[in-house]
Specification:
This protein is an alpha+beta fold. The chain has four helices and five strands; from the N terminus they run ααβαββββα. The chain has one domain (3-130): Nuclear Transport Factor 2, Chain: A (Roll). β4 and β5 (114-122) form a beta hairpin. The N and C termini lie far apart (42 Å).
Length: 137
């Protein structure tokens, strides 16, 4: 297995699945470029930390698992499934107590054993429907 894939898998396991937010410093570059960050967050690791903290607080049982990953050069791409229970505010949406399961794809650039750049596309429509915020039909 590619060492870059291992970095990504370990980062997801520690930061998201184990909720070890201190591990952000171990796996995320100080100057990470997060192409999917919500507007208004500061650049770099502090903005990334704020984004992750908000997500983990909204979904405290959050789990991310990859069905597959591909590594080429300094890039890792993968398809993942994210599950969790909405128990805290999420982007202004009060806790619903509803369980979600959504899929997504991400691309990450790994430099010097840390994630230096991140793009993610996730089924936000499906998530909003599962939370009951948007009608399903």
């Amino acid at each position: 297995m590619s060492s870059k894939k291992i970095v990504v898998q370990r980062a997801v396991m520690e930061i998201f699945n184990k909720k070890n937010l201190a591990a952000i410093d171990d796996f995320i570059s100080e100057n990470i470029v997060d192409h999917s960050a919500p507007e208004g967050l500061p650049a770099g690791i502090e903005g990334y930390r704020m984004k992750v903290t908000a997500f983990v607080e909204a979904f405290p049982d959050l789990n991310i698992s990859y069905s597959h990953q591909i590594a080429e050069g300094d890039m890792v791409a993968g398809r993942f499934t994210l599950t969790g229970t909405h128990k805290g505010d999420f982007g202004g949406i009060a806790a619903t107590g509803k369980k979600i399961s959504v899929t997504g794809h991400d691309q990450l650039r790994v430099k010097e054993e840390k994630i230096a750049e991140h793009w993610v596309e996730m089924d936000m429509l499906g998530m909003m429907q599962q939370l009951g915020v948007i009608a399903t039909a």
